[in-house]
Amino acid sequence: MALFGSSEKKPEVKTEFMFDTESTINQSTLAKDIKINGSLESTDYLDFSGHLTGTLKSSTINLKPGSYVKGTITADTLTVEGEVDGDIQAKDIYIKSTAKIKGNIRYQNIDIQNGSIINADLFYSS
User: Fold this and answer.
1) Of 55, 108, 64, 57, nearest to 86 (Cα)?
2) pTM of whole model > 0.85?
3) Which site from 22, 59, 70, 118 is most exposed, i.e. has the minimal number of CB atoms within 10 Å?
4) Cα(53)–Cα(75) distance, rounded to whole angstroms?
């Protein structure tokens, strides 16, 4: 018998996580007080609430309500809740009821909610 603990070996406990801790998604969030003149490019997820004049490019873009983009947007997946004045090119586009879009939209899949305002030419691209 030891004075300061047991000499018995305790079984090893393996910790398992409910989510994948190996792969990480780089998420960038830009608040509504951000104003950009130029280009903004990201490789993963971009949550944008600000104003941009120029080009916006990322794998996944979420334009939040109140956001404004004047220029070109390129993405694999794009959700528009704000306002766009320019050209959009994306594989999957989700246009929410708060969206206002003026320009050209090139898409593979598109979902348009009632209430959105679209003054654009739509082009399906495979």
Assistant:
1) 55
2) no
3) 22
4) 17
